[in-house]
Design brief:
seven-stranded mixed beta sheet; elongated; alpha/beta; about 35% helix
Length: about 250
């Protein structure tokens, strides 16, 4: 039992360090207090012993205190496991809009503007390609400032839109490349939108890739791939995501 308790306290210390390194001070303090609680209890018990307070070895008071501490440590470690594996983590201040793509993988950007109120809400859009990599979706040059991934100040971006790897839509044509031929389908995408500042999910959408049967000049795929997919064009992005950006 003592070894298990030491292990749990060690995990609390580890989670505390990770939390502080990620800039989450409240969580770091929580785990620091959890790690210190057994030591504090032992010190308290030793002081009472020196003061002459007598207590039977199996007394209810001491047993209850130990059990409460054990429950608190186990509960905190359980939450710590969830926090380390799944909860969003603070990221460094982005220097380019393209760096916001980690917002699609449980990161958030505390220095960014909040998504609140009415008006323009600058957005960074990232689409997962057929090889499984998230890339920034270029909107072109003829778009309003809140959509312009090239000229936007990355700290002003309030919304991060993440398109998952596409499913097959309608078949469009065969695309011939140097080594082989791949079937081109219209991409069907699930979209999740997050507030850049907090990592909070603010919406989900579905989106279609372009209907144009236009083969790319080159494409990156994984071994064994037999098909590729079109991505949405600028008009498609604005039609579906505009309610988060322009209002």
């Amino acid at each position: 039992m003592a070894q298990l308790f030491v292990l749990l306290v060690g995990l609390a210390v580890l989670f505390s360090v990770i939390a502080f390194q990620n800039g989450n001070v409240p969580i770091g303090v929580l785990f620091a207090l959890v790690a210190a609680s057994p030591v504090a209890f032992l010190v308290f018990a030793a002081v009472r012993g020196k003061q002459g307070t007598r207590q039977a070895p199996g007394s209810k008071g001491r047993t209850l205190a130990v059990r409460l501490i054990a429950v608190a440590v186990v509960a905190a470690i359980g939450y710590g496991g969830y926090w380390v594996l799944f909860a969003p983590k603070a990221a460094d201040t982005p220097a380019r809009v393209s760096e916001l793509k980690t917002g699609c993988s449980s990161k958030y950007f505390p220095q960014n503007d909040a998504y609140t109120g009415t008006g323009r809400h600058p957005i960074g859009v990232f689409v997962t390609d057929d090889a499984g990599y998230a890339n920034i979706a270029s909107m072109g040059t003829e778009v309003p400032p809140q959509w312009d991934d090239i000229r936007l100040n990355p700290r002003q971006v309030q919304v991060i839109a993440c398109l998952d790897k596409p499913d097959d839509g309608p078949y469009l044509k065969d695309c011939a490349f140097t080594s082989d031929s791949l079937k081109l389908y219209q991409g069907m995408y699930d979209v999740t939108l997050y507030e850049a500042k907090t990592g909070k999910k603010i919406g989900t959408e579905k989106m279609r890739g372009s209907e144009k049967p236009s083969c790319p000049s080159m494409t990156l795929t994984k071994r064994g791939t037999t098909s590729i997919h079109t991505e949405p064009d600028s008009a498609g992005y604005r039609a579906v995501l505009g309610k988060y950006v322009d209002n």
